[in-house]
Amino acid sequence: MLKNRSEGSIEFKNRDISAVLAKIGQPYVRGYLPAYNYQKQLLEEVVFSYIRKKPEAEKTFQLFAESAPTPKGLVFEKMLEEMPKAEALLQEPEMVYRSPVKVNYIELEQANKSVGQTGESIALEYERWRLVHAGKESLADKIEWVSQTQGDGLGFDILSKNTNGTDRYIEVKSKKLTKEAPFYFSAFEYDFSKRQRSSFFLYRVFNLKAEPKLFIANGAYDEFCNMKPTQFKGSF
After folding, report:
1. What is the model's pLDDT at position 117?
2. Of 37, 194, 213, 227, which residue is 20 to 30 A from 53 by alpha carbon distance?
């Protein structure tokens, strides 16, 4: 059907489509990282028109956000990956008033409890493996899944240990998409990361529909990722 298009041009077109979807807060095409240097007006209208004519498209987005993750195995030796470069991070979804989809399903997926708990349990098991692998079994026994034992609202999910015995505060952000997908954190979580910057670690667990992967970032959020406010509080 596309005899006059090279494989490269088809790949870039799929990446452009991914960019349009990510821009409006939707899951993007698996295997095609969004590329934002597309012809915005023309391509957006084509994608939006397709979604309007295919109401089942939004149902697919919703199913993605609400479905449980299906990890296919934990291989700790191969789990850790490099953190994405800052310029590769996906943009926060923009306000596109003509968008046919009004729900940010990328954000909704992060709020999915099954996704969050699966990612946290994987991070917990990875931590135990990391310390045991480093010959620190006694420290591995001290790990606490605080979001389960003490509840949410502490600013982190797992209290672990560094190999020297000091505390390691771990916040887990989980995703079925790739590691470049945007994630969301509260003002309280941001403040905690600043107060505990040397001991605070983000564990970004991703690819939860296949073989789970993770990358680790240390420091306050504004030191390792791009930040953009998405909500405001008004008062009189």
Report:
1. 97
2. 37
Which residues in the chain belong to E strands, given as ranges?
Answer: 158-161, 167-174, 200-206, 213-218
Which of 103, 97, 23, 93 lies closest to 59 in space, CA to CA?
103
Q: What is the mean pLDDT of residues 147-172?
A: 97
51 touches 96 (CB < 8 A): no
DSSP alpha helix (H) spans, 24-91:
40-53, 56-66, 76-79
**Range of lowest pLDDT (68-72, 88-92, 116-120, 166-170):** 88-92
Domain ranges of the chain: 1-236
In whole angstroms, give the CA distance from residue 62 to residue 58. 6
Q: Among 13-22, 27-36, 150-159, where is mean pLDDT lowest?
A: 27-36
Which residues contact residue 34 at a Cβ distance below 8 angstroms, ignoring those fewer than 6 apart? Answer: 15, 16, 18, 19, 21, 22, 23, 28, 90, 180
Taking CA atoms, 28 is separated from 73, 74, 93, 143, in Å, by: 24, 25, 12, 35
Tokens of 12: 């870039």
Tell me the CA distances in angstroms from 200 to 106, 112, 197, one per residue in order: 25, 24, 5
pLDDT, tens digit, for every residue of 191-222? 999 999 999 999 999 999 999 999 999 999 99
As a whole number of angstroms, the distance between CA 200 and CA 194 comes to 8
